[in-house]
Amino acid sequence: MTKLEAKNIVKYFKHDSHRLKALGGVNLQIEDGEFVCLVGPSGCGKSTFLRIVAGLETPDEGEIFFDGKPVTSTGPERIIVFQEGALFPWLKVQDNVEFGLKMAGIPKEERAQISKRYLDMMQLTKFADSYTYQLSTGMKQRVAIARALVMDPDVLLMDEPFAALDAQTRDLLLVEMQLIWEKTKKTILFVTHNVTEATVLGTKVAVFSNRPSTIKKVINIDYKRPRLVEDQNLFPLQQEILSELRPEVKKN
Ligand SMILES: Nc1ncnc2c1ncn2[C@@H]1O[C@H](COP(=O)(O)OP(=O)(O)OP(=O)(O)O)[C@@H](O)[C@H]1O
User: Fold this and answer.
1) How far, in Å, from the CA of 44 to the mean position of ligand 1?
2) What global pTM score does this model have?
3) ABC transporter domain: which residues (predicted)?
4) Closest residue by CA, ligand 1 atom 16
5) Cα 135-141-142 angle, rounded to 5 deg
6) ipTM of the complex as predicted
7) Which residues have CB under 6 Å of ligand 1?
8) pLDDT in tens, 156-184
9) CA of 193, closest atom in ligand 1
């Protein structure tokens, strides 16, 4: 079943005296439970596209459909996780994770039950009473992912969530992310600059062209999990993606 569909998404931005055409007609179809990685040259509009899917921006042309209905605003079924996690420093880890549930009026005990499951899943139980400044960057990112997952969204939108992590932490989270996806069966859209990351995570990888961007190619990846970054069987796919990407980066 199709979960999300982008139809001819066009987006302009105002830059001083001129209009910059960021998205030039993006078309993408995403089935329920797919893990779709978005790669493309810097500034091509990947984050803009994700924000449009989240309902945080409106396209100038085209439409996003969620379960066949047009997206007109943000909604709890589409939750975005940003690169820096955007946590609340004045709240403890558990309160950060429960924040959306509290806003939704879920009673305290029920909130605690739900957050416990995701704190366990993200190996954060011991840190439930810590403040976010007491955590490493990788742990903060796990809190941000847990905070999104407690809301049980249909679609998780992730904007370079691992970009600020060291290589070892990132490799661990890449395995954890695959396990979470297998356990929760969420539909995931994941923006990354890292082609290896894209092949490790994705059921498919959508390559954006240079601005005004369109989807240049979609590459399907049907390979056993959990996938590891050092798996050489993924190299040919990485080369295929890079061969699509390099000419776009040069144009940039
Ligand atoms: N709010 C805004 N106002 C003006 N221009 C914007 C705005 N947001 C994005 N842009 C422009 O739109 C283009 C696409 O930006 P966007 O951040 O979506 O690209 P990206 O592919 O995610 O980039 P990167 O890979 O470097 O993070 C860029 O040229 C950027 O300058």
Assistant:
1) 7
2) 0.92
3) 4-235
4) 45
5) 90
6) 0.97
7) 13, 20, 22, 40, 42-48
8) 999 998 887 888 888 888 998 999 899 88
9) 25
